[in-house]
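Posting for a labmate who doesn't have an account.
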Amino acid sequence: MASHSEFGAKTDAKDVFAAFPTAVEGKVVLVTGVSPNGLGAELARSLATQKPKLLILTGRSSSKVEAVAGDISTPGVEIRIVLFDISSFGSIATAVEEINGLAVPSIDLVFNNAGVMNIPERRLSADGFEYHLATNYLGLALFTNGILPKVKKSDAGRIVNVVSNGYALSPFRFSDYNFDGAGDLPEDEQPSKQAMEAFGIPFGLGYIPPVAYGQSKTAAMLYTRELADKLKGTNATALSVMPGVIETDLWREMPPETVKTILSSLPSKSASQGIATMLVAALDPRLKESGGAYLDDCQVADVQPFAKDKAKAEKLWQLSERLTGKTFTV
């Protein structure tokens, strides 16, 4: 349970900082997926006002990350930029080496914010994985595992993984995680007909962009729960966060008129309101006891059984090690 029951959908970053006024000061903070019109930029600018010791900003595009860094003028805040493609295992390995080589003993807060959504046609990453899966899950897990030793050295390490209520569209498809269409899909791995109907998406078992996105977010949530379980007894933990519906570049793969219709029909948030739940997950000390939880509108919320199943989380952890070729040591 979060410390502030009065927090909700309208809570913004200033409200959270007011509740935890010294929680960022002097800390080393890492934010992935930083670009001017995204939540990563809002996070970076807002966190800088709280006087962290070091802000590590990452992204694929040097011009975009540097544009955000250039907007930050808080005296005394050191900024380091690390460029990498989170969909690429090789690029992640290079970034992990660079980050682990920084002259700081620990990383206190990690915001895994990088992601893609609703890619119209099935696309594979450089390593041969469906692009949502590669970016929103496999890359996230591989990167997090790589920098985990630094996070565990923090007095209160916190990993915040940005997910979505779109997870409800699909369980993890162990039988066809890459959407190759090979064989029959077991019923418990099929997309949710009820959720697809609610989102206005025709049911199908092949590649459907929101379903691929949903599967990747389910995977991130299962990973977060298993990671938090394995971190018990340490100073670190991990949580999943649904920021809300916000107009950012995350919608870039969809036609502008479709995006406009969606945003006008759903309760939306400002960027500051969008990062509020992320900040609560990172800063609220009471949530140390809620490791692995999913937060929405600044509060811990329940999820579908398939997104919190311990056996599935363990199975996914083992599969992820095989797919990435790395042992996820905690």
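Reply:
Got it, the structure tokens are right above this. The longest strand covers residues 54-59.
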